[in-house]
Amino acid sequence: MRIIGIVCGLMLFTLQGTEAHASFSELKEDLTLFQEARDNFYYVADKANEVRIYTDIESRFAGDCEDFAYSLAMKIGGEVWFTYNAKKVPHAVVVTEYGMVFDNELEWPMRKDVYPNKLLFKIGFSHFDTVFVNGEIAKQKKVQ
User: Fold this and answer.
1) Cβ pair 72, 54 in contact under 8 A
2) What pLDDT score does 144 carry?
3) Which of the 8 DSSP states describes residue 141?
4) Counting Cβ atoms within 10 Å, is residue 70 exposed (0-12), middle (13-18) or buried (19+)?
5) For 69, which of 76, 92, 115, 137 could close a Cys bridge (C-beta 3.0–4.6 Å)?
6) Do residues 109 and 34 touch, judged by C-beta distance below 8 A?
7) Cα 69–Cα 29–Cα 4 angle in degrees, nearest 5
8) Backbone φ, ψ for residue 52 (5° rounding)
9) How far apart, in whole angstroms, are the C-alpha atoms of residue 81 and residue 136?
10) Quick check: 110 pLDDT over 90?
11) Could you tell me the pTM of the whole model?
């Protein structure tokens, strides 16, 4: 019972000071999807400058941080941002419209104003040579 109270208290605390207001149920649903995605995700480095988006994150899926971030953003909304992680390695995270950062390297989302890494810029699809959705090519830059 104490754990539930702590989690509920954490969720309510995180709603304070956010840019837009998320309902408790919205944050709870996003948190559930985030935890499920983290449990189902395994890291595989990119072979090329590509992003792989999965619409089913409730099952096993693989990729790097951009793949995780775009796949999660498809479910919870938000934008994918570039940052450097704690080890100073390039990294991608989801930032929601209500000001929460969902980072696959962290157990819990954090408010943007207390997230330890500097959010540098939004990552758009133009940053990638190839975009896959569920294994199918959705966008590919023309070779010159």
Assistant:
1) no
2) 62
3) P
4) buried
5) 92
6) yes
7) 115
8) -115, 120
9) 24
10) yes
11) 0.83
Rounded to the nearest 5°, which phi and psi values hold at 2?
Answer: -65, -40
Judge whether residue 106 has pLDDT over 80: yes
Q: How far apart are CA 123 and CA 66, in angstroms?
A: 9
Token pair belonging to 117: 């890494």
* Domain positions in the chain: 2-140
Nearest CA-CA partner of 59 in 40, 79, 46, 81: 40
Position 23 scores a pLDDT of: 82
Indicate the pairing of strand 110-111 with strand 100-102.
Answer: antiparallel
Residue 36 identity: E
93 bridge partner residues: 81
**Helix pair 2-15, 24-40: axis angle to 10 deg:** 110
Q: Quick one: which of 81, 80, 78 has its CA closest to 96? A: 78
